[in-house]
Amino acid sequence: MTSIALVVPADVDAVRSGGNLYDLRLAEALRRADDDVTLCRVEGSWPAVDSAAERRLAAALERLRTEDGHRVVIIDGLVGAACPGVITASVAAGMDLRLLIHLPLGLEPGLEAETARRRNALEEASVRAATSVIATSNWAAAELCRRHGLQQVAVAPPGVEPAPLADGSTPPRLLQVGALTPGKNQLALVSALAGVADEPWTACLVGSLTRDPLYVQQVQRAIGEADLGARILLTGELTGTALADQWQAADLSVLPSSVETYGMVVTESLAHGIPVIVSSGTGAEDTLGHDQRGQRPGFAVAPGEPAGLRRVLAQWLRDPTTRSAARRAAENRRAGLTGWDQTARDVAAAVQQKAAR
Fold first, then answer.
1. pTM of this prediction?
2. By the 8 A CB rule, do 261 and 102 touch?
3. What is the pLDDT of residues 87-106, one digit of tens each?
4. Are 246 and 175 spatial neighbours (Cβ–Cβ below 8 Å)?
5. What is the DSSP letter of 107?
6. Helical H runs in 149-184?
7. How confident is the model over 281-330, as pLDDT tens digits?
8. Which domain, by its residues, includes 7?
9. Does 76 lie in the same domain as 7?
10. Contact in structure between 313 and 4 (CB atoms under 8 Å)
């Protein structure tokens, strides 16, 4: 049994994000593997830290070191990557501290150039001070090595829960799952759908409407201007049966994000046998992958190009052969997906590898 403390944002249970879901699923999978896992929640506007947040993080790590006696501490990069002073002091005090990076801090969509530069510099100091670094995708690991001159970053991709094959809908239903924010780029999908309004389809945008209210207004305005209010539904955040029903009704999943290190929605889609449109050059394209026959279970489109997305949607809507080939490849790709127990094994291997060295 390994004693692990997983240091996470205080809102890990309340805010539905890919990073938070990863942390919670990882903790569950590690416990199933008989590891002793403690979730240590730390308050702060991560990664926009202030001195008070740094003090809370330092106090939490000191308590783990002196009171709880955890052998390994894994700290979510959103919490720790912008706090190199805390990381350096904790490792110097004898902590075995691993940074778990979901998204390099400087790549957060919408950052001003100076903020991105400053966060990148803080992250570089933090990853160099930590005992080791774990990334949640091969894409993120390569980006961290490129940005910070690291020689080795372990990788522990997210798992996915098994799911029934989607039934689909008539007319075809398009689905985008993710908070309505500029980074998820719902405006690109609305613009592309406006260009294929003569085809039969409906679309559903599932995700929080409170993260960026101004962006939500832009999306709503674009839908209204394209006269698509009766065909594009904004549901807000869904969980449980309500979300499962949306997956069951979907025929095509769309993730036109400007940046994705992995794209957990991609494997969720494939678990239902639903093909996916992703942004090329992002981690989501790696996640989409290919089936056993070398066929891509969906499409990759350059981010920020609604015209390219519109062309792919038009082909998929108008050509039954394209639709059936993408669906067949998605069902084939479904068989090769791995669960969260594999993620836990990847993390355990990363921890043991460093310990052995």
1. 0.92
2. yes
3. 999 999 999 999 999 999 99
4. yes
5. G
6. none
7. 999 999 999 999 999 999 999 987 889 999 999 999 999 999 999 999 99
8. 3-159+339-356
9. yes
10. no
